[in-house]
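Folds abound. Consider this:
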Amino acid sequence: MNRKLMPIMLFVIEVVMYYFICLYFAMDIELIVGSGILYFLFMFIYGHYSLKTCLIWNEIRQLAKSSFCFYIALLVLVPRSTGYERRMHLTIMVISMFFISLLASRFLRIAFREQFARKTLVIGTGYEAARLGKISNNNRFALTEVKGYVDINYTDQLYGFKQENLIKKSPVYGYCDMDKAIDALNIEQIIIAIPEADQQVIDKVMSDIHGKVESVKYLPDVNGTMTFSSEVQDFDGQLLIATSNDKMSVFDRAFKRIIDIMAGLAGVITLIPLTIFVKYKYVKSGDHDSIFFSQERIGKDGKLIKIYKFRSMVPNAEEVLERLMEEDPAIKEEYLTNKKLKHDPRITPVGDFLRKTSLDEWPQFYNVLKGEMSFIGPRPYLPREKEDMGQFYDSIIKLKPGVTGMWQANGRSDVEFSYRCKLDDYYYHNWSIWLDFTIMYKTVKSVVYGKGSL
C-alpha cells in the first residue's frame, strides 16, 4: 500500500467527523465551511498530515498547538453576537476534534503499520543502536520498523564496536554484506547509529550508502553541546549550529515548584494508608524492624540530603553488600559497573513486591514537599558515585533530584549506570514542561507494565 495514502485517509476521516459535529450543533453552512478551512489549514501548518515518523507525545503536542491556535482564531473571528451557547458549541467542537484526530491518527498508524512503516536498517550494534531499534519496534505509533543491523566490526576498513546484547531477534549483517541486506529486506531507510565513530568512519559509511535508499538518518554524539533549543543557521553558505544551554526562567521554576507541591501533598496523603499496608506485610512475614530507610544522597548544588524510602532490603544491607563483594568477584564487578545487582540477595520478599510496583519510592514525596527533591528530575545519586558520574556531575547537580526522571522512564533498572548519567545530563540541557509531561507518561506506563524498577 502506498504510504502517501495514510494522510489522505486521515484527512477524509477528520473532514467527515468535523462535518457531522457541526451538523449536530446545527451550524449554518457558511460557518461550517469557513471554520473548516481554518481548522485544516492549522492542521497542515503544524504537520499533522506529515509522513515524518514521530512518537505519540509529539503528535499530542502538534495537535494541542493547532487546536489552540484554531480556537483563538475562532474567538477573534466569530462575533460576540453569536451568543454564549454558540461559543460553547465551538469550544466542544475543538475539544472533540482534538481527541478524534489523535485517535484517528493512532488507529491508522497501528492498523496499517505493516504497510506504512519504513523498513529500516541500522548501521551499528552498540547500546545506542540497540535502544534505537527497541524504541522503533516497540512503539506502535512510530512508522519505523527496524529489520536488521549492520556490524561494522566485520570489515578491515572500519573500526570495530562491541555488539550489544539487546539485539536479539533481528538479523545482524557484516559490513561487507550491507548491499545484500538492503536488497533482501527491501530497505527504504538507513539510520547510522555509531556515535562513538570518528568523522573518517562516518564519511566512509555515508559514501558507501549514497543513493541506495530513500532516506538516511544519523545519530550524532552531541555530549550536551547540542540541544533541542539549538538552531541550524545558514551563515553565507556555511552551516552553523547555535548551541543553547538556557537556564530555567523564574516562571519555569515557579511552575515546576507548584507541580512539586501538588504532587508532594498527594503523595504524603496517600503515604499514610500505604505505610499501614507495608507495616502489616512486614509483620506478617515475621520482620519487625523499621519499615523506613533513610540514606544520604547528592542534592541540588552538590548539597547532601537525606532521602526516605520504604525498606526493601535486610536491615544491615550495606554490611551484607561488602561481604558479598569480598566473597564473589562477579558480584563486585556487577555492582561497581551498574551500581545495582540484578538479582540482589539482600532484597526481602516484601521488598521485592515494593520494588516491582515502585512503592518503595513513595516516602520521597516527603522530600518533594520539603523542597529537597522534585517530582521529576535527575536520579538522586549516592555520594560515593560522584567520581563515577564524571563529566556529567556538574550539570546533574544544577537541578533537584527527582522521584522519577529520564532514566527511570527509559528502561529504569535495565539501564546501565553510565547511560543513566547521560540521560540525566540530557534532561538538564533539554528541560521543558512538555518533557516533564512525557516522563510522567512513560513512567506510569513502565510501572504498569512492570518493566524494571525505580
